[in-house]
Amino acid sequence: MNASTAGEPRLAAADFLRTQHDALLEDWQQAVLEHLRGQVPARAPWLIDHMPELLCTLADAMESGPEALDEHLEMVHAAARLDEGFDLGDVAQEYALLRRCILHRLEAREQPLRAGDLTRLEETLDRVVTRTMMFFWTMKQRTLQTLNRMAEATLDDPDMETLLERLLTRLMEAALTVDAAAVMLLEGDALVVRAAVGLGTQEVKGSRVPLGRGVTGQAALERRPFFIRSAATDPRVLFAPLRQAGLRALYGLPLMDGERLLGVAYMGSRTAFAFSDSDVLLFHAVAERSSAHIAQTELHAREHAARKEAERSLALLDSLLDAVPVGIAFLDPDLRYLRINGLLAALNRKPAEAHRGRTLREMVREGAADPIERAMKQVLALGQPVQDVLIEGPDRGGLGYWRADYFPVRTAEGVLLGVGGTVVDINAYKRAEAALQQAIDFREELLAVLGHDLRNPLHAVNASAFMLGRARGLDDASLRAVDRIRKSSARMTRMINDILDFARTRLGGGIPVTPERVDMTELCQGALEELQVTYPERPLSLEARSDNPWGYWDPDRVSQVLGNLVVNALQHAKSDTPVRTTLSDEGPDVVMRVHNEGDPIPAALLPRLFDPFKESNAPEEGASRRSLGLGLYIVHEIVQVHGGSVHVESTLEHGTTFTVRWPRIPSRPP
User: Fold this and answer.
1) What confidence tens digit (pLDDT) does each residue in 272-303 have?
2) CA 113: distance to chain centroid?
């Protein structure tokens, strides 16, 4: 000690602790944070909650003796450290750091402590450290023993409610002041008591508390613990059995799985107005273990439900795969089979079980793998379906045909799992298609041959009838017979021409036309004169209203159209009424109209009037007949080839009028 301080009074340790209170706390907190290496926030309240009071107690003990030390404070400090996960070494280290901070502050001061104060300070600190560590160790051993007994309660894998009641029973056995305990689980928007032991057990089980109601509902809503000193008189306690049992202390806290609320647990005492820190710490441990078991049980339940649903879905899928009359398979991105039904497996000539895990090329029959693999790789590359893939290959001694569609298989989130495929046996369709085409070809060729071979004898019949009609000396009956021959041969000629034209359209050649520059009026006049010879008793008139009757048309086809329309009109007109044909100019078109009086065309027949082979009930000479129904079809086709149009209007008041528009310039120039 130097001369300048020899006469000065020495510093009392109590005064030092009080004057350096804040500086010591700051030094100690910094030292602890460095020791913990940033594992806790820089200003975590729990870190210094008990230290300010501890320093004040140390100062009081330096003045009044060790009796001033508060054992409760040391117990609370030990419980807080145990709750925060400290081990015994961490607790000893933080007190060692406090001692070091005090000594460093003392060394930095020039005024020494009073004689004996440093020794008493060291002894007091030793007493605090020893008792805190003893409390810490005792509480930790008690907690570990309780947790071990709790672990034993789970060995036989009980259901969740039984397990929770066992855990609560272990709590009551370890904490003698606890007379009632319960676990409430969150179900929808309410808390439901699912496990309870002690007082009021049977009365409260199954009770519901809405979130935000009562002390438990509010604790769940705010995610914070609660404490009540007198549950029997507090109106926030909604369970009447707890009030009737005369409970005093009631403590509870939310059960959490991370940020997810599971429920609320509470414990009550009929003898104590407050629980010890040790009991509260033990309750926290029980609650934490209960939360873990609840979360694990829920997870297992979800996994079990998901597994059951997956098994059910797979069973339904297998049933569907076996029932559908289509080959179906699913493959992974490496084109290895995941699932295949029996129908497709049979096409590959291997059992369905043998496909699992095998590649496409290993299982598909020879010659068919290339188009299938190419289509599936396109699906995997683009993520889009590939449809109507024709597969050909040997089948039952001949050539077989199948149609396949391939599509991507994805999860609900859109992740590509692989490729699926459906295969349809189209051999029957191919055979039916070939037979149908053969029948069509035969019919069209037959029509063409018949039409061509019948024309020559008909020409002879028609010429002979013409010559016979000019002979002299025939009586009226003979003349009528010759007239019927001429009409019948003319009708047969038109029918044969229609058959030939129909055959050309169906065989793909279309109706041939040779347009040339002609006078429409002269064409129509000549066609009507020829018809008048065949039908001398029926008036056929032509009215030309066209100043420019010229255009490019096929004269034979124009005559054929007019002939079919006039004959059709004669068949449906009243026997004593004329059939009128008019020609008029309408811009670039010459319009031909053929009109007759008589019964209107039935409305049901109008939509298909120009279809081939429709039935007709037109009378001829008092007898009913069945027409081929090709005349109007040929009219439509010829007009369409010329780029024109044809339509009909038919009413009882105004009769029936067919209107044909003939463009002067054909759609295919000459």
Assistant:
1) 999 888 888 888 888 888 888 888 888 888 88
2) 81
**For the whole model, what pTM was predicted?**
0.44
Residue 388, both tokens: 């109507």
**pLDDT tens digit sequence for 144-202:** 676 676 666 666 667 778 878 888 888 888 888 899 999 999 999 999 999 999 987 78
Q: Dump pLDDT digits (tens) for 481-519.
A: 877 787 777 777 777 777 777 776 766 667 888 899 999
Cα–Cα dist 448/452, whole Å = 6
Banded pLDDT at 620 (limits 50, 70, 90)? very low
* Strand-pair partners of 542: 581
- Burial of residue 538 (CB within 10 Å: 0-12, 13-18, 19+) is middle
Helices (H), 153-276: 160-174, 201-204, 214-222, 240-244
Cβ-based burial of 564 (10 A; exposed 0-12, middle 13-18, buried ≥19): buried
In terms of C-beta density within 10 A (0-12 exposed, 13-18 middle, 19 or more buried), how is residue 407 classed?
middle
**Greatest alpha-carbon span in the chain:** 183
- Where b means 16+ CB within 10 Å and e means fewer, 588-602 reads ebbbbbbbbbbeeee
Which amino acid belongs to residue 244? Q
Please name the residue that has the structure tokens 């009424």: 577
For the beta carbon of residue 585, count every other beta carbon within 10 angstroms: 14
Q: Does 55 have pLDDT greater than 70?
A: yes
Comparing C-alpha atoms, which of 507, 502, 544 is closest to residue 523?
544
pLDDT at 349 over 80: yes
- Judge residue 643's burial from the number of C-beta atoms within 10 Å of its C-beta, 0-12 exposed, 13-18 middle, 19 or more buried: middle
Q: Where are the beta strands (DSSP E) in 211-297?
A: 226-228, 250-257, 260-268
Nearest C-alpha neighbor of 421 from the set 350, 360, 351, 353 = 360
What is the H or E stretch that residue 64 is in?
Answer: helix 51-64
What proportions of the chain, in percent to the nearest 5, are helix, strand and coil?
A: 50, 20, 30
> Residue 545: enclosing H or E segment and its boundaries?
strand 540-545
**Rounded Cα gap, residues 544 and 528, in angstroms:** 13
What does the angle CA 372 – CA 377 – CA 382 come to, to the nearest 5 degrees?
A: 130
- Residue 254: phi and psi, rounded to 5, are -70, 145
Taking 50 as the threshold, does the pLDDT of residue 328 lie above it? yes
CA 84 from chain center: how many Å? 47
Cα distance between residue 642 and residue 558, in whole Å: 10
* CA distance linking residue 493 with residue 490, whole number of Å: 5
From CA 503, how far away is CA 546, in angstroms rounded? 35
Q: Is 573 in contact with 601 (CB distance < 8 Å)?
A: no
What pLDDT, on the 0 to 100 scale, is given for residue 3?
41
Cα 267 to Cα 8, 166, 170, 236, 242: the distances in Å are 59, 14, 12, 15, 11
The reported pLDDT for the residue numbered 189 is 92
Query: Are 92 and 129 a contacting pair, CB within 8 Å?
Result: yes
Q: Which of 72, 179, 89, 71 is nearest to 140 (CA)?
A: 89
Write down the residue that tokens 């009770």 correspond to.
Answer: 207
Could you tell me the CA-to-CA distances from 268 to 166, 283, 470 in Å, in that order?
17, 11, 134
CA 14 from chain centre, in angstroms, equals 76
